[in-house]
Amino acid sequence: MTGPTRTDGPSYAYLGPEGTFTEAALLQVPGADAARRVPAATVGAALDAVRARSVDAAMVPIENSVEGGVSATLDAIAVGEPLRILREELVPITFVLAARPGTTLDGVRRIATHGHAWAQCRNWVDAHVPRAEYFPSSSTAAAAFGLAGDEHGYDAAICSPLVAERLGLAVLAADIGDVADAVTRFILVGTPDALPPRTGADKTTLVIPLPDDHPGALMQILDQFAARGVNLSRIESRPTGQFLGDYFFSVDADGHVEDARVADALKGLHRISPGLRFLGSYARADRRSPAVERHTSDDAFEAADAWLEGIVRGGDGDRPGRS
Ligand SMILES: O=C(O)C(=O)C[C@]1(C(=O)O)C=C[C@@H](O)C=C1
């Protein structure tokens, strides 16, 4: 990615080139169609542009309903200069097999695409082009663009119908994803000075290093959420890369850090795992509010704090003591 210059209005990096599903996610952000958009070759490069403050935020994929977590993103946001997730976007995923006009399905020997896209079309490929080999590409759109050049080394690309159309490629087969209704979740990542407001239907993303290797370490972590009635919508373990068996957990929890139950769980987690990294609280794309039990509501936490304060001040907790 070349060093972009700042202009007025927000600017966004994204996993490019133009025509990726990531760009489609970015275009769902209000105002992004008119903003400066900077395609990056990799997720790491998009996030580095945020860290270098050459863009305001970057859109990157984090999770797919079929293939699971996007390791490149989970790992890149877990280390280095801290970042903040500002919002999430969901994009329905539909793949086509595209090639230069004149190519037939029988003539396809090598198919280029992003690893996550390949994983989502594996059964279709096995059934319809069993001899075809996988040719890795940095994105579905980069694979499609490659077909337009002379040096591509492959005969077809798995990409979005839109990019195939834009580049004038022939669609050899449409809707080739193994699971209908596949969805990828994307995150808009900015710098730590921003904390999106609480909406009542929020998500909090955390990176939790496993404190030390002892029986029940994971249980201790999960207990912090369970005891405060905080539901987890995603938990994945990722190797830290330091040594074999050293892992961190990447977690999405229902709620905002300004919800008392979430704040209390975070304090508990920090005592257990001081290397805990807060990656942001932001509105859920589906706007679904969690069911909060009475004893984990903000009111219940506030009443408990007041009760304890009363005791410390010398009352019995029910009656105010000396102040
Ligand atoms: O290659 C693209 O078009 C992307 O935006 C990347 C990506 C991913 O990383 O999962 C996004 C959505 C699809 O699930 C496949 C690929």
Please tag this protein with its features.
323 residues; alpha/beta; D-Maltodextrin-Binding Protein, domain 2; Alpha-Beta Plaits; 3 domains; 9 helices; 28% strand; elongated; disordered N terminus; binds prephenic acid
Supply the number of structural domains.
Answer: 3
Count of beta strands: 15
CATH architecture label of the largest domain: 3-Layer(aba) Sandwich
Could you please say which CATH topology of the largest domain applies here?
A: D-Maltodextrin-Binding Protein, domain 2
Approximate shape: elongated
Helicity, in percent? Answer: 25-40%
Tally of helical runs: 9
Bound molecules: prephenic acid
* Average predicted local confidence, pLDDT: 93
CATH class of the largest domain: Alpha Beta
N/C terminus separation: 61 Å
Proportion of β residues?
A: 25-35%
Name the CATH homologous superfamily of the largest domain.
Periplasmic binding protein-like II
What integer value in Å does the Rg equal? 23 Å
Characterize the main sheet.
6 strands, mixed
Low-confidence stretches: 1-6
Please identify the structural class as seen in this structure. alpha/beta
Order of helices and strands: EHEHEEHEEEHEHEHEEEHEEHEH
Catalytic activity: prephenate + H(+) = 3-phenylpyruvate + CO2 + H2O
Pathway: Amino-acid biosynthesis; L-phenylalanine biosynthesis; phenylpyruvate from prephenate: step 1/1
EC number: 4.2.1.51
Site (Essential for prephenate dehydratase activity): 184
